[in-house]
Design a protein that fits this description.
Layout: H1 2-12, E1 55-58, H2 69-84, E2 91-94, H3 102-114, E3 119-122, H4 128-137, E4 142-146, E5 156-161, H5 163-177, E6 182-187, H6 194-210, E7 215-220, H7 227-239, E8 244-248, H8 253-261, E9 264-269, E10 280-286, H9 289-301, E11 309-311, E12 318-320, H10 331-344, E13 356-357, E14 363-364, E15 381-383
Parallel strand pairs: 1-2, 1-3, 3-4, 4-5, 5-11, 6-7, 6-8, 7-15, 8-9, 9-10
Antiparallel strand pairs: 10-12, 13-14
Helix pairs in contact: 1-3, 2-9, 5-6, 5-10, 7-8
């Protein structure tokens, strides 16, 4: 019956959302909060003993790649496991789940429920609608979706952070290094996706802060994970004369193409010097263990509140790799100066008050938490 349900739901997601009952499913404890009776520890669910908890993870690619998006998320899962002292048997991974394949997504989520997971992390944007649906079907299981914007305040939440802070700082490194004043940016999505667009804008602002003559040229792949397309986009930007290549995409291929061409790169997700030491200036990075640890601990403690999570540099979720020797002289000092202003609360990239000029003549503001609404490009950004 579960397999049949999986197929039915997969087809139905193409046209409408279904509703149903959870049935006899594993639970995150009892969902006391749903009946208005909070757990003894104040959370929405009863505590789960640490030696009984099971954690599920759905990845768009494979952590064995050794760098990039999935690798970084899995480092966070490993960090959580070590921090909490969980066994390997308590972590169940579903790797290589294409976020455009409804059947694979639905099947992976169903299997994690069937295998007894109390909390499930789905790490790619494209999983969002499917996680929303499965969370409604199984209200006793907690589902957490990485990025995105949907949630239900109970067993379905989203998690992300102020990556724009590190993006801005990395723009300083790029702006100080470029000689052609042409900086390329390989983007997974166009300006309909605020996560990508706000990151581009923050990077471009960082570039402008140290080099007002430089422009940022954006090449969109249209996919979160497209190794070949990411490399091709980087090549096209290099052929245009871009001598620094930044990225918001999953693999190290843009940095590798930069290395092959003798130009420079700003990595994303993990430290790209591991794959492209001859090109990488610095890398915008996440430490997902910060979130995964506190989320799983709250399930163990019975303190899960159903709130969304939005971390930053101050809590360690968002980081920037140290500047490599390839950076221009004084780059690390300039980055540290601005970083200290961010950490002290003296200044932030998107504060909801500062007005920015777009590349089509508009004047806009943005609050970091509202990154999803960012559909504009900063004034020194051009589409390639």
């Amino acid at each position: 019956m579960k397999k049949l349900l999986s197929l039915l739901l997969s087809g139905a997601m193409a046209c409408t959302l279904l509703t149903g009952c959870g049935g006899d499913t594993p639970s995150a404890g009892s969902q006391a909060g749903a009946e208005g009776n909070p757990s003894a520890s104040g959370g929405l669910f009863e505590a789960v003993p640490k030696d009984e908890i099971k954690v599920g993870v759905v990845h768009i690619s494979n952590p064995a790649e050794g760098t990039g998006y999935t690798y970084t998320h899995d480092l966070g899962i490993q960090g959580m496991q070590e921090n909490l002292g969980l066994s390997d048997e308590q972590i169940i991974r579903k790797n290589d789940i294409d976020d455009q394949d409804a059947t694979k997504i639905q099947t992976a989520l169903e299997e994690l429920v069937e295998e007894g997971c109390n909390i499930i992390f789905a790490t790619s944007w494209g999983y969002m609608d499917y996680v929303e649906q499965i969370a409604a079907e199984y209200p006793e299981v907690i589902f957490c979706h990485g990025t995105g914007y949907k949630s239900n305040g109970s067993n379905f939440t989203n998690y992300f952070g102020k990556i724009n802070q590190a993006r801005y700082l990395s723009g300083i490194a790029a702006g100080m290094k470029t000689e052609s004043n042409k900086i390329g940016y390989v983007a997974a999505q166009n300006n309909e996706n605020g996560e990508v667009t706000s990151g581009i804008d923050a990077f471009a602002m960082g570039v402008e802060s140290v080099n007002p003559d430089a422009k940022v040229y954006v090449k969109v792949t249209g996919s979160w994970f497209d190794p070949e397309g990411e490399g091709q986009a980087a090549k096209a930007l290099i052929d245009m004369g871009c001598d620094v290549i930044a990225q918001h995409c999953d693999t190290a291929n843009p940095a590798l193409e930069a290395q092959n061409a003798g130009v420079y790169a700003v990595g994303y997700n993990s430290d790209m010097t591991e794959k492209a030491p001859g090109s990488t200036l610095t890398s915008v990075m996440w430490d997902w263990s910060v979130y995964y640890t506190q989320a799983v601990q709250s399930v163990i403690d019975g303190t899960w509140t159903g709130e969304n999570y939005f971390g930053d540099m101050a809590d360690g979720l968002v980081t920037l790799a140290p500047c490599s020797d390839l950076c221009a002289e004084g780059t690390q000092e300039k980055i540290d100066e601005v970083k200290n202003q961010i950490l002290s609360g003296e200044w932030d990239v998107f504060d909801g008050v500062t007005e920015y000029q777009t590349n089509d003549g508009q004047t806009v503001t943005l609050l970091a938490e509202d990154y999803g609404s960012c559909n504009w490009y900063y004034r020194n950004v051009e589409l390639a």
